[in-house]
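INPUT
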Amino acid sequence: MAQDKSVLLDIKDLRIDGYTGEEWVPIIKGVDLRLHRGEVMGLIGESGAGKSTIGAAAMGYARDGTRIVEGSSIEFDGMELTTATEGERRALRGSRIAYVAQSAAASFNPAHKIIDQHTEAPLHYRIQSRVAAQEDAMDLYQRLRLPDPDQIGFRYPHQVSGGQLQRAMTAMAMACRPDLIIFDEPTTALDVTTQIEVLAAIRDIVDQFNTAAIYITHDLAVVAQMADTIKVLLKGEEVEQASTEDMLENPQEDYTKSLWAVRSFKRTQKRRPTGEPPVISVQNVDAAYTGGIKVLDDVSFDIHRGMTVAVVGESGSGKSTTARVITGLLPPTSGQVLFRGEPLPPSYLNRSKDQLRQTQMIYQMADTALNPKVRISEIIGRPAQFYSGLSGTALKHRVDELLDLIELEPSQYYDRYPPELSGGQKQRIGIARALAAEPTFIICDEVTSALDQLVAEGILKLLDRLQSELDLAYMFITHDLATVRSIADEVVVMQNGKVVEQGPKDEMFKPPHHPYTDLLLSSVPEMDPNWLTDLLEERGVDNIGEAADV
Amino acid sequence: MGDIVNLVLKRLGFGLITLLVISVIIFFMVELLPGDIAQAVLGQGATEENVAALREQMGLNNPAFVRYFEWLGGAVVGDFGTSIVSGERVSTIITERFINTLFLAAYAAVIAVPFAITLGVVVALLRNTLFDRVANVLTLTSISSPEFFLGYILILFFAVKWQMFPAISSLSDGMSFAELLDRTFLPALTLVLVVTAHMMRMTRAAIINLLASPYIEMARLKGAPPWKVIVKHALPNAWAPIINVIALNLAYLITGVVLVEVVFVYPGIGQALVDAVSKRDFPIVQACCLIFAATFILLNLAADVGAILTNPRLRHPK
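OUTPUT
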C-alpha cells in the first residue's frame, strides 16, 4: 500500500518562555521541526533541554507557567495552531494528536476505570457509541498484547502493573486513530524487561496505523530502536538532526559525540583482598514486612573492603529491602549481618554509634533526601559533629575538606541551600553527607538513575575515585546494567527476594547465565538500530509479554 | 468490603473510647464548679438541715466516682437524671429541643452543602477571575461576621423591611411543614452564610491542588473541556478533604448554634444549655455536653468512612 508521506507537522522558529516566579525567561530558543505522515522523530537531550515542552507545543499546548512567544509557527496539517482559538486547538487533542505520558501510573485518573478513560475521547468527539468504543478498546488491548484484553479495561489503574498501564495508555492514545502521537519518555519509569514489551508494542501499533510520532527520551539506545530521524537538543536549541543511521554512525557535533561516548566509562575489576573477613557479610537473611509477606528469602552475599558489589534486579526483587536489613531499619526474621566478622545487632536501635557510623547511605532522589531548608554546611556538618564530635573551626575545616572531596568549591557552596543546586550537585552533597561519618561501607541506592547520562557518569567517576582514595566498600543497588558494567567488581542478581546468581562481574557478563540474568542482560537496549527487531525474532514475539509480566 | 467493615468497627470502637474519656471530663468538670449544688437549689435562706437533707436525697454525699458510674449507667440507657430546677426528667426536656436543633441543622445543611460545593467547583473553574475574587470576598465576609450580627441584618431586611419571613422562630404544635420551613428560614439562612465559606474554599483548594497532577494534564491533552476536567477528573479525587470539612461544619451546625437560637428565639438545645448553665442545672449541662461530643465523634467517623469510600484504591483492592 502506498502510504501518504506529506508533511504533517511543520514547526518554525518555535520560541517558548517559562515563568520563574519573577520574570519570563526563554526556554525554547527558536527550534524548527518538520514531521511527515508516518514518520517517527526522536527528540533527545538532557533534562532541561526542552524536549517535553516542544512535545506539548506540537499539540498547541503550553504547560502552566509557559507561553508560546508570538512569531512562532506551529502548523499541523495546514492549520496554524498559534493563531487558532483555544476551542479549535482543543478539538485536535485526543482526536488527531494524542499524548502518551512518562508515568502511566500517574497519568491515569485513579478514580475511573481504564476503559472509561479510554473511551472518553471517542465519546466526547462522538466518533463512536460507547459499546463500539469499548469493543475497539479491547481490540487495541489485544493488538498491544495486554493479558485478558476483554476484561483488563474494567479494572482501575492501581489494579494493573506499570508496564501494562503504559501499554493501555498507548492504546488510549490510539482511540481516535490520531495522525500524530507525542510519546513523552514512555518507558523511562519501567524496568528493562518491561521496557522491551512496551517498545515493541509502540513500534507495532505506530507502524500498523501509519501514525506519525514524536518520541521524546534521554536514552539513546531506546531512540535508536524507535525513530526514523533523530533531533538532538541542548538547552532549548537544536544541536543537529539526521536520520537515525547517520546520527549513530557519524554524529557531527561535539555535544552529540559526548552523548554517544557516555557509556564508555569502565574501570578494571578488582579482586577480593585475601586474609581478612568481608566488611559486610549477609548470611541467610529472610525478611518480611508487617502482614507477614516474605520479601527476602535466604539472601547471602559478601562485600569486601575497597570493592563494589552491584545488586541488580527489577523493582520488587528485594534490592532495597536488603539495604534496609543491612542498615538495621528492617530487622530480619532469620539470618544475620556480619560487620568484619562480628554480628551486627538486627535493629539499628541496638547498634553502637561506631557501628552506625560504619554504614552510610546515598539515596536515589537527592531532591527529597536533602532538607531544602537547611544550609549545605549544616547538612554535611551534622554527621561530622554527631559521629566525630567536631565543632567550631575543626568542623568548618572538615566540611571544607568534604566539599573539596566531592569537587565543589567550598567557599561557593558552604552557605547555600539544596534547591539552588542542580541534580548532580545535590547528589554530590548526598555523597559528602555519607562521607562525613567516615564510613567503611556505603550503600548507593539507584544513585544515578534520576540523573542525565553525562551527569551520572560524573557521579560514577567521583564514587570510583573516592573508593580508591578512602578504601570504601560499596553496595550498588541498580536496575541499570550499564552502570553495573562500568563500576562493579562483583554482581548479585536478585529476583523475587532470592539471589539467583552472583559472582565477579566479568564472569557475570559472559554466558552461560542463569535464565533470569540472561533475560535482564539481553533486555538492555543497545545502540544498534536493529537490536529490538533481532531480539524480538530471537525471543519469539509471543513470549515477550509473558517474560516480563511474571 | 470486609476490610472496610473492619475499619468502620475499629473507628467506632475508638469513638466509644473517646466518648468515655469525654464523659469523665464532663462529669468532673461540673464537679469542680465552685459552690454547693444543694445550697444553690434551695437558695440563700435554706437551713443547714434542709441542705443536708437534699444532699442526702440527691446522693451528693457519695464519693464522686460512685456518682460518676451511676450517672454513666443511666446515660447509656438514655436516662440523664432529673432537672434540679424543674424536677422533670432531663431526657424529656432535651429530646424535643435536640430534635428541633437537628431539624434546623438539616435545613441549613440541605441548602449549604450543595450550594458550597457547586460554588467551589465554579470558582475553581473560574479561578483567578473577578467572579472568583468576589465569591471569595463575600464568603469570607460572611464567615468573619459574628452570627448574631448576620442574624440581625437578615431580620432587618427580610423581616422588618420586606416582611418576607418572621423574625421570631417560635414553634407551636400542629404547624404544617411548609409553615415550619417558613418560620425557620431566617435562622437556617444565617447558618448557611456561616458555614458555606469553609466548604466552598476547601472544595476550591482541593480541586486546584489536583490541577497540577499528570492525569489532569492528560485529560486536557485528550481534549476534555475545562468544566469536564474539573468535574470529572479533579472532583472525584478531591472528596476526602471536602468531606472532612463538611463533617466539621455539620457538627458546628448542631453544636455551635447557640447564638443563632437566641437571636431567633428558637427552642433548640443550645438555648437549653445556656439556660441550664445560668441556673446551675448540672444534669442538663452534662447531658448536652455529652450529646455534643457524641455528635462530633459520629460525624467525624462518617467523614472518615466517606473519605475511604471515595478512594478507589481502598474500594477496589488489588
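end of record. Residues 90-125 of chain B form the longest helix (36 residues).
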